[in-house]
Amino acid sequence: MQLRHLAQRAPSAGLPEPTRSAAPPSDKPSGPDPKSILNSIGEVIYDWDIGSDRLTWGPNVADVLGFASAGDLATGRSYASLLSATSKDSRQEAIAQSQSVDQGSGVPYHVCYALEATNSRGRGAPVWIEDTGRWFGDASGKPVGAHGLIRVITAQHEAAEKLQERSRVDPATGALSRASLTDHIEQLLERSKQRNETFVVLLAAIENLFALNRTYGYDAADQVIAAIVARLQAEMRGSDVIARYSGNKFGLVLAGCDGEQMKVAARRFIETIAAAPFQTDVAPIHAALRIGGVIAPRHGRSAQVLFCHAEEALDLARQSGARRFAEFEHSLSAADARLRALRTADDILAGLNQGRVTLAFQPIVRLACGSTAFEEALLRLIMPDGTIAGPSALLPVAEKAGLIGLLDARVFDLALARLKEDRGVRLSINVSAATLHDPDWPERLRNAVRLAPAAAERLVIEITESSALVDIEATCAAIAAMKSLGIRVAMDDFGAGHTSFKNLRRLGFDLVKIDGAFIQNLARSPDDRFFVRTLLDLARHLDIATVAEWVEEAETAHLLAGWGVDYAQGNFFGEAQLVSTAAASAAA
Ligand code: C2E
Ligand code: CA
Ligand code: CA
Fold first, then answer.
1. Alpha-carbon distance 234 to 90, whole Å?
2. DSSP code of 331?
């Protein structure tokens, strides 16, 4: 470009020829008007005599900068006073810090900075400048003058900022990064101080991402993660924000939301993810979320505290069964929870020692005729005060304290005793992942069954999808060991995890129990009906018998029977009940 060339040309000798104020256009009888050409490309040339600090500008400077008064531009110092606090560089520094020596043709410099005009209303919006020129030195090499050109690049700067903003985004999902999430929360906290507004932070965890990766491969799992973000975004309001908090967790910020709205929103998010599988290159994959929520600033006045409390809420959500959502409770702060957990672990040990671990039985009926096919034996602990503790209070603590294997073993002994005691009884029991993958478990089973071979044939062992997928090889071996003893094996909570068709076939289940969360609202939810029918098709294709859990209404039972579901369990047919049996006391 001609003007750039003009600005960077080498001086004929010594100091560059100062750019005199251009003559007014009327003095130029012909040819293009240089002022309007310079204006049209947003550039101005200048000379800076460093000795006297005098700055001389091209005639279009006021037009290009749009704000500066002559006084602001008259000297290097006054020009520097316009520098915005946001810009890190300046022309002075670029020249002063130059390592080069002027060999006679000047030393080039190139620097970008922002200027801010001061007017009666204070400082205006920053104008970004690209400043390119050459400085010239005296005999000792000290800079004595500079000749250059400035160009307004505000639009380009904003575009570059946006680009940088994009790097604040998780590239795999398009959600914000965790750092951006933190910034956003800090900003909202700041705003809430002034406007007394509350907002909500949700931590949403994808269940069994580990199993998903193992089963379908990382590419398919990545596709699911990206699709989850897209589906959540479709449910969010314009002011809401979603970010990748960690590998399997998203942070959602819902501005202007209170506690009630938080519950409704979390439920909506959970439902939309469970509503339909995600299409991937490998297979349609189901995903499920658990969500922990906090309300800011009530539950924390910094992003870090809010995250910490949202993690605690997420832990509660993990223990909440089909609810899948929990709000942070101050009374359940980490210290309290640890204390309670310690007490519960003591309670469990004492219960095991004192024979207070017992079973509740819930019938599983044949849908075709309503007769009881077998009963599920469910863990209960009778507390010293006579109250009954159930699995939701016991299992998370037992798992953390390493007591789950002892509980499962006791439940197995109790169930076996009942089977031996009453030959008309058929039972199912639950075993946890820890038991399933315990190398001593098959041996323990074998020893127990050797003494009561007929009992094994009347026993079903239920394994949840999620524990089955922790280690497919180990699960396969454990299932084979159980089946070789005549025990039948059921997949529990089917639909809540991510079982692939392949794994379901490979693991050789005799029964699948469709997760109650999809049955409970069957009569009212077309999505649930669609999903359950898909699960049934899959089971039927593999020739596996089906059980529907949590049947609470006649209409649901009727629907399921119409679809050919084999068995049903739920409060409609009978709640889980403690039965005092001779076997219970004997086994204890
Ligand atoms: P699960 O295996 O899915 O057991 C069914 C749970 O659903 C039982 O809760 C049962 O009381 C409940 N339920 C049954 N019908 C209905 C209904 O119509 N509506 C609703 N809302 N709920 C219904 P429970 O006894 O609290 O057990 C919870 C979970 O704890 C069980 O879920 C199972 O995963 C686990 N569990 C129970 N006993 C044992 C055990 O001995 N060992 C292990 N490892 N886990 C156990
Ligand atoms: Ca079960
Ligand atoms: Ca279940």
1. 45
2. G
Can you say whether the dihedral through the CA atoms of 179, 181, 184, 185 is positive or negative?
Answer: negative
Torsion angle, CA of 99/20/54/68, rounded to 10 degrees? Answer: -100
Q: Whose CA is nearest to atom 25 of ligand 1?
A: 378
| Ligand 1 center from residue 360 Cα (angstroms) | 10
State the pairing for strand pair 459-464/488-494.
parallel
**Considering only 94-103, 259-268, 345-354, which range has the smallest mean pLDDT?**
94-103
- Ligand 2: centre distance to CA 386 (Å): 25
Q: How many residues does the chain have?
A: 588
406 lines ligand 1 (CB under 6 A): no
Output the average pLDDT for the chain: 85
List the residue whose alpha carbon is closest to atom 37 of ligand 1: 378
The tally of CA atoms less than 13 A away on the side-chain side of residue 508 is: 13
Any atom of ligand 1 within 6 Å of the Cβ of 375: no
Would the pTM count as exceeding 0.85? no
Atom of ligand 1 nearest to the CA of 378: 38
- Band (295; pLDDT cuts 50, 70, 90): very high
In the block, which residue shows the tokens 């020596």? 101
Domains of the chain listed by start with CATH number = 3-161 (3.30.450.20), 168-332 (3.30.70.270), 340-587 (3.20.20.450)
